[in-house]
Amino acid sequence: MTTAKRAYPHTRLDHQLVEIPASARDDMRVAARIYADEALWDQIRRDRSVAQLVNVATLPGVESPVLAMPDAHEGYGFPVGGVAAFRAGDGVISPGGVGYDINCGVRLLASGLPVTDVRPRLSALMHELGRSVPSGTGRGGSLDFDPAELDRVLATGSRALVCRGMATDADLLHTEAGGHLAAADPGAVSQRARQRGQDQLGTLGSGNHFVELQAVDAVFDDAAAAAMGLRPGDCVVLIHTGSRGLGHQVCTDYVRDMDAVMRRHDITLPDRELACAPFRSPEGQRYFAAMCAAANFAFANRQAITHAVRQAFARTLGTGVGLDVVYDVAHNMAKLETHRGRELVVHRKGATRAFGPANPETPARYRAIGQPVLIPGSMGTASYVLAGTDAALDLSFGSCCHGAGRAMSRHAARAAQSGGEVRRGLEALGIVVTGAGNRELAEEAPHAYKDVERVVDVVHAAGLARRVARLVPVGVLKG
Amino acid sequence: MSSRHEFIPHVAEVAWRLTADTVPELYEEACVALGRMLVAEAGDDGPAEERVLTFAAADAEALLVDLLNELIYLAETARWAPRAARVEHWEAGQLTIRVIGAWLRHVPSRIKSATHHGLRLTTTPRGAAAEVILDV
Question: How does DSSP classify residue A63?
């Protein structure tokens, strides 16, 4: 297996960056770069992340370099935390390079309410959130969408919820791509995928998905924090979920399709999960259209959850709470973007955009500071808000990391600490946890993840994004 | 050698090593392994109908992934999980398998897909083996 753990020759370029030269393996077309300090590099090379990144460097039409973010860990095909750009003209698109949970992403809501005003009603609010946002096993959504409405969601994303009173124009303005990818074609989404997604709009799902109430614990950049509506001590809400079963089925369908046509396109791979097709081929275009439709479903999912969260706040705390969308970013996506004067298909798998002030896609509200970059920590640890930089365009195709990144397998996490112990530990910190069973809590425990402080330090020091605010958890609804 | 499956380390996902005397028995073991995970998550709600599933794919590895993905789809959309299985027909790129089912008490959400990552299905005089990673 080419993805076996192996030591590749590498050079440390600076305190935050390691390079594996294109000569490290015969089939590499470009170099691989890993943003990591020594401690993170030691963690990252313990699993198969580096071998997976080297595999990505072999794909046709890849632009130099392929990248791993400081939260990288092994995935399937691409590593999680991987960024790779392919020339639209002669490069490929790979469903495995996007991942199964298409447009898994995070959204931050600012309440403008001091967390001290929320604490007395915290248990009631978390209970209400648990009732309003279905999560985990066996919880379908309460939204009823007929096939025509589902088509509208797939075609227009969050926009489809405006007419239902579940989204505002301001929400759309502060969502990546306006919550709507125009290249979507609902016709490219299979009946199976629709069936899996049928009652899942407005649901969290399971795994590492969550709705978390947090407090703004520290502000590092006053002007940027003010532009984002973040004040020290304020209560904010972070939502993490994606395209649910619909997105997974889209990926499953197209990995299978591309696996079947690669020989025709004369593509050989070191790992079958990297199944891909030329971006301009009929297969590549059809996957791109389906992926965009699944991404629209995910944008609408986070929007529907936003609506439910607003209702839960209103029922518990009164109707005066605004809950403005600060920003919504995608983690798993392939985007057609222009970098270095070339049209590139930028794959971000477990990585986000981090566009700076000069980028025309940065919303007007953030043109002076750069787009908000949201980096959730694990349960019980801090999350961070950063601002994108123009320098990131050269450094990382305008990309940044998406979280702390797993450091431990689920099995090892369960063996290290029981779910009950994790729950008691969180409660001792004053964090109310709801929705998750002990197994899920054990698997998602803080010790299963890398140190988010170190990850953010690397991002900030490398210039991929700059630190704006630190958020600490107050209440967690786990998927 | 009797059929069996074991979990192998993966940082983020679930990975299995399946072993059996023959390739058809390996497919049967994959059904049992997945069924146990589904029932552990979503609860057993009693016996369900048998289903005969037919697949065509490029090779034995792709058949294994297709089989698992079909079972994941059925679990999520019909609350139906495999309890036991018997291969009725297997040859290059073709698989027909009869699967005895169990109803699930809830819709499962933990296991999302079977992947092709690092997938190897090997046969030796001692039997058949495969490693497969499930996206969770």
Answer: P
Q: Across the interface, do A249 and B12 touch by the CB < 8 Å criterion?
A: no
**ipTM of the prediction greater than 0.90, yes or no:** no
In terms of Cα–Cα distance, which of A257, A199, A137 is closest to B81? Answer: A137
Q: Where are the beta strands (DSSP E) in A221-330?
A: 234-241, 277-278, 324-330
Q: Is B92 left (phi over 0), alpha (psi -120 to 50) or beta?
A: beta
- Give CA–CA dist A438/A418, Å, rounded: 7
Domains and CATH numbers, chain B: 4-135 (3.55.10.10)
Residue among A43, A137, A262 with most chain B CBs within 10 A, to mutate: A137
For B63, the token pair is 């058949």
Q: Do B109 and A138 touch (CB under 8 A)?
A: yes
Q: Which residue has the tokens 């095909």?
A: A77
Using the Cβ of A415 and the Cβ atoms of chain B, whether some distance falls under 8 Å is answered with no
The two tokens of residue A51 are: 């071998």
Q: What is the pLDDT of residue A443?
A: 86
**Residue A73 touches partner B, C-beta closer than 8 Å:** yes
| Residue A1 pLDDT grade (very low, low, confident, very high; cuts 50, 70, 90) | very low
Which of the given ranges, A73-77, A400-404, A442-446, has the highest pLDDT on average?
Answer: A400-404
In a mutational test of the A interface, the residue from B113, B120, B133 whose CB has the highest number of chain A CBs within 10 Å is: B113
Q: Are B18 and B5 in contact (CB under 8 A)?
A: yes
Residues of A annotated catalytic, as ranges:
402
Asked if pLDDT for residue B1 goes beyond 70, the answer is no
B17 touches chain A (CB under 8 A): no
Q: Which of A196, A245, A273 is opposite residue B117, by nearest beta carbon?
A: A273
Pairing of strands B127-135, A342-349: unpaired
pTM exceeding 0.90: yes
Per-residue pLDDT tens digits for A316-373: 998 778 899 999 999 999 999 999 999 999 999 999 999 999 999 999 999 999 999 9
